[in-house]
Amino acid sequence: MHNAFPNHLIERLESTRVVAGFSTEEVDDAVATANALYDGGIDALEVTLRTPAAIDGIRAIAEARPEMLVGVGTILTPDQVHQVKDAGAAFGVAPGLSPQVIQAARDAELPFAPGVMTPSDLTQAIELGLRFVKLFPAEAAGGKDYLNSLAAPFASYGIRYFPFGGVKNENVADYLSLPAVAAVGGTWIAPASMIAARDWAGITRRAEEARATVERLALSEVA
Ligand SMILES: O=C(O)C(=O)C[C@H](O)[C@H](O)COP(=O)(O)O
Q1: Which of 11, 63, 109, 134 is catalytic?
Q2: How far apart are CA 55 and CA 84, in angstroms?
Q3: How far apart are CA 31 and CA 43, in angstroms?
Q4: Is 85 a catalytic residue?
Q5: Were both Cys, which of 1, 69, 135, 201 would link to 44 (CB 3.0–4.6 Å)?
Q6: ipTM
Q7: What per-residue confidence (pLDDT) applies to 15?
């Protein structure tokens, strides 16, 4: 069974490092949010499938900003896998692990990372041939220390992690400094309140702040 998440995409996430998640009530707001993120230097996003406008929003972003990496979150069913692939999504994630959703993603050739939180989840992901997983909810589960404890017994598999849930500018470096973490995701850059207020300049500022954190971290790793 091949890895459901291709290496070239993991490499793209390793260079982007931060993926801005958000939900959208309006298609136009989805594109405006993507533009605001891009203007602030964040070129990877994840739209959650939690609103009726999500699928059209994903399609609109993929058409308007082909240079951005457009991911989708909260994929809970095989049907949703096919819908988001059709809308132009580049990858998908879910809060949990469903073998049916993983199989649908393989059939649709949608790069997909299921959510894991426990050693049993991770064992199942490995049995299903996966080596790239979302850790959710990362911060509530115990953050960086939890991730280290979870990952230790599975180190020989070379698992790469994509933590989500409670990540923000204050703790993003904790996660990104772990070699097993490819990238992190979260809604702190484009929170629902700022999208509702159409505060695009505010979202751009938060994107700039996140990008600056990533760049500082890259410099300190080289030093
Ligand atoms: O449902 C999915 O597949 C998701 O990706 C959901 C997001 O991971 C979290 O909603 C992010 O959590 P916060 O950054 O704490 O708001």
Answers
A1: 134
A2: 7
A3: 13
A4: no
A5: 69
A6: 0.95
A7: 93
What is the homologous superfamily of the domain 7-222 according to CATH? Aldolase class I (3.20.20.70)
Report the atom number in ligand 1 closest to the C-alpha of 73: 3
Q: Rounded to an integer, what distance in angstroms lies between the CA atom of residue 97 and that of residue 125?
A: 8
Q: In what order do the strands lie in the sheet with 160-163?
A: 115-116, 132-135, 160-163
| Choice from 13, 18, 45, 48 to test ligand 1 binding pocket (greatest atom count within 8 A of CB) | 48
> Ligand 1 mean position to 188 CA, how many Å?
10
- Please give the number of the atom of ligand 1 that sits closest to the Cα of 95: 3
Neighbour count for residue 129 (Cβ, 10 Å): 12
pTM of the model: 0.96
Kindly state the average pLDDT of the residues 125-129.
97
Residue 154's nearest CA partner among 126, 182, 113, 183 is 126
**Ligand 1 centroid from CA 16, angstroms:** 18
Residue type, 52: P
Residue 220: its pLDDT value, please?
85
Q: 61-107: per-residue pLDDT in tens? A: 999 999 999 999 999 999 999 999 999 999 999 999 999 999 999 99
Q: Are 23 and 54 in contact (CB under 8 A)?
A: yes
CA of 223 to the centre of ligand 1 (A): 33
Q: From the CB of 18, is ligand 1 less than 6 Å away?
A: no
Is 127 catalytic? The answer is no
